[in-house]
Amino acid sequence: MIREPEARGAVWLAASALVLVACGSATVGSVGPPASAKWTGPAVPSPDGGHVTTSIYYGPWSCSADFMTRCERRCAAAGRLLQGCIWLADIKGDWSGRFLGLPAAAGGRLAITHCCCDYPETDGAASRRIWNNARRGFRNQWAEEFGAWPRVPGGDMWPGHHIHDLLHGGDPVARANLLPVPPEIHETINTVYPQCYAGDVRWRTIGPDRPYSD
Asked: What's the distance, CA 198 to chain centroid?
């Protein structure tokens, strides 16, 4: 398993292996109930001549003790207090190719979490307009790296969820701040964000290290 330092957001591909960068550390979905939803993209060529397949497992789940501690530190570093933590999803990448002329495989899995610090609310309407204007280009960039942007079978594209939400100052077009989410899961997430910012006990309660199974 490949592990990378913490950073906000989503996945990136790098030279000879898959590098996953997210708000959290590597996890293994080997126990617990199935995820709320799962998306698996096509095998996409990687820079080293191999192929990468990306899968996304969706929550939301309560944060593990490690993620909650990281959020406390992140909020404190910004001069803010932690209201709660949401574990939104896991992004898993599987690379296959050749190394030293032999067949090889590697992979990693990183958590996408959001720290509900006591950020002040902002005028999210202006940020929403920026995102609406950039949505198509963002989806096209996603498609080049991970395969076509997910959509409901025979229907609309999935919503793009802003991990750090626009109402609390999230960047509307930063690649690392956006994640495609199934419509029904997006509705759930839009419900739990206000709960998290309000300090609801669920999002302040420590959850398991591995909340779902593959």
From this structure: 22
What is the token pair recorded at 13? 């591909």
Residue 87's alpha-carbon distances to 54, 64, 122, 193, 206, in angstroms, are: 19, 8, 23, 11, 11
- pTM (2 decimals)? 0.84
Say if residue 103 is preceded by a cis peptide, omega within 30 of 0. no
Supply 134's token pair.
């950039």
Can you give the pLDDT of all 214 residues of the chain as single tens digits? 223 323 333 333 222 223 333 344 455 555 678 999 999 999 888 777 788 899 999 999 999 999 999 999 999 999 999 999 999 999 998 887 777 777 787 778 889 999 999 999 998 899 999 999 999 999 999 998 888 999 998 889 999 999 999 999 999 999 999 999 999 999 999 999 999 999 999 999 999 999 998 8
Distance separating alpha carbons of residues 178 and 170, to the nearest angstrom: 10
Contacts of 174 (CB under 8 A, 6+ apart): 9
